[in-house]
């Protein structure tokens, strides 16, 4: 079984559209994250939820809205997509906010291409 | 604020040769440091981590890293590189609150036959 799974793996869409990426983890972790990886492989944290509560919001445009219906799921909805949103979005999870092991468990990524 | 610098954008080594990837960090207290590897088209996987104690830490796939406080460094090493080690390597630091991992820009490793 995949520990952290994201869907879809690939997403191609037009500017101005709205899209969502879903993430699920079956590791029983309390904390989940969204990271954005740009074309130069730079990884930037976007959001983090701890047990369904938003704890990190890294000055991401409000076109991006995360939602965590329960601690095993963290979805990312993006409104009015722009060319600069093209990237690979990674979901990750961690037990108890990293204070226990610090290890992040990553999904395989969702590659978003905005045309 | 904590930060991580990986000075080398890419490195090429011959198969069987030794490898050292550099990482420097900025943090006032004892840092929590990590090395992750990303194979093409994949997510990141933890290679090893340093929290405290022995400054030489062993990881998976034959990798090790040494924490040097005096140099603010946490360099990754492997004595003999295999072709399958070709990947992107990220050094990372955990922030004070323990909820945010900050990544370096990554070093791309190429392995030549």
Characterization of this structure:
The complex is a heterodimer of chains A (115) and B (113). Chain A has one domain: Immunoglobulins (Immunoglobulin-like), CATH 2.60.40.10. In chain A, 0% of the residues lie in helices and 55% in strands. Chain A contains no helices and eleven strands. Chain A has strands spanning 4-7, 10-13, 19-25, 31-37, 43-50, 53-57, 64-70, 73-78, 87-94, 105-106, 110-114. In chain A, a hairpin with a 5-residue loop joins strand 4 and strand 5. Chain B has strands spanning 3-5, 10-14, 19-21, 24-26, 32-38, 44-50, 56-58, 64-68, 73-78, 87-94, 101-103, 107-112. In chain B, the strands form three sheets. In chain B, strands 2, 5, 6, 10, 11 and 12 form a six-stranded mixed β-sheet that branches. In chain B, strands 3-9-8-7 form a four-stranded antiparallel β-sheet, with no helix packed on it. Classes of the chains: A mainly beta (115), B mainly beta (113). Chain A binds chain B through residues 4, 31, 40-43, 45, 48, 50, 55-56, 90, 92, 97-99, 101-104, 106-109, and chain B through 32, 34, 36, 38, 41-46, 49, 51, 88, 90, 94, 97-103, 105-106, 108.
List keywords for this structure.
heterodimer; A: 115 residues; mainly beta; Immunoglobulin-like; 7-stranded mixed β-sheet; 4-stranded antiparallel β-sheet; 11 strands; 55% strand; B: 113 residues; 6-stranded mixed β-sheet; 12 strands; 52% strand; globular
How would you sum up this structure in a few lines?
The complex is a heterodimer of chains A (115) and B (113). With 115 residues, chain A is mostly beta strands.
Strand element count of chain B:
12
In the CATH hierarchy, the architecture of chain B is: Sandwich
Q: What class, by secondary structure content of chain A?
A: mainly beta
The proportion of residues forming helix of chain A, as a percent range, comes to under 10%
Radius of gyration of chain B: 13 Å
Shape descriptor of chain A reads globular
CATH class of chain A: Mainly Beta
The description of the largest β-sheet of chain A is: 7 strands, mixed
CATH superfamily of chain A: Immunoglobulins
Span between termini of chain A: 34 Å
Instruction: Output the number of helix runs of chain A.
Output: 0
- Indicate the CATH topology of chain B: Immunoglobulin-like
Shape of chain B: globular
Oligomer: heterodimer
What name does the CATH topology of chain A carry? Immunoglobulin-like
Largest interface, with counts of residues having CB < 8 Å to the other chain, equals:
A-B, 24 and 25 residues
Spatial extent as radius of gyration of chain A: 13 Å
Run of helices and strands of chain B: EEEEEEEEEEEE
State the domain count of chain B: 1
